[in-house]
Amino acid sequence: MYVLGVETSCDETSVSIVKDGKEVLSNEVLSQIDIHKEYGGVVPEIASREHIKGITFVFDKAIRDAGIGFDDIDLIAVTEGPGLIGSLLIGVNAAKTISLNYHIPIIGVHHITGHIYASNIENDMQFPLIALVVSGGHTELILMKEHFSFEKLGETQDDAVGEAYDKVARVLGLPYPGGPVVDKLSRQGIDKYHFPRPMIDTDDFNFSFSGLKSHVINLHHNMIQRNEHINAPDFCRSFQEAVTDVLVRKTIKAKEKYEVKQIVVAGGVAANSGLREKMRSSIQDIPVYFPKMAYCTDNAAMIAVAGYFKYLKQKKYDDLMLNGSSRLKMDEGEL
Ligand code: KG4
Ligand code: ZN
Questions:
Q1: Prediction pTM value
Q2: Same domain, 311 and 270
């Protein structure tokens, strides 16, 4: 089964062809990072205009690279939400146009299911599993007992991890997106400040990162006022150690409670080197899978894989009433 995936929920225009939920034949990603960098973050209006400019080219290239034609596609899977509404609408409408023109069934996919299913590309999922989803908009622990069944165990009560990374980076005067830069600098620093580990010992599976973020920002501010030298690598390392300690501890707690067979870490922050190391060294009795870098950040291959498994589970398509939904909710059973 050839599935064409479409992802435009934020600032990446991406189209991919995936065979049988596993074999990525093409995964075209047009990133707008260089455009938004100038503004220190994604500007929604600019993002949707850039999607319009790039989408036709990205569709054509994905089809060409896969070496197939539109007539060979069995299913179109498109991110319907959550995300920036203007951006989502470009992908959804492009997908509906192709669906209508070539008579290909279409299915809407929740962006987070895409991030989770990215891990199936290189390793088959085995259930039950725990997915730690860490991105610019989400921080969640999810239990999956079978394909396309999701039980949210906990989530952030305020900032998402990626968001906290980006805000700390901005205060330190680092370029957008801050996560990868903070990660890189942290390799050269030490955990000098030992920042608080918020909610690390609570009984639930929830998170909170805004207090930690404020703590880092306030210390930075006070040091500037006192004219003290700011060592960015030490700030970054101290922040990263605090964040990853919390993420790893809560994941271990969930693993033990639900006796799962594997852990998958998903979303943009799964690219974080400190998280990868700490998760792997702390959990050795079951496999911990991180998608390769290209499948961690937003891409359409993960959407095609999620769409494939969603269809296998639900055996139904969407129709042309399918629409973008910026705050698409996670329902139990189906995110
Ligand atoms: O999943 P994603 O591409 O987009 C969303 O759905 O949000 O995640 C983007 C987020 C950004 O906040 C970015 O700073 C963060 O992932 N990120 C990282 C790293 N690479 C990307 N955060 C920490 N360390 C990294 N290496
Ligand atoms: Zn994402």
A1: 0.94
A2: no
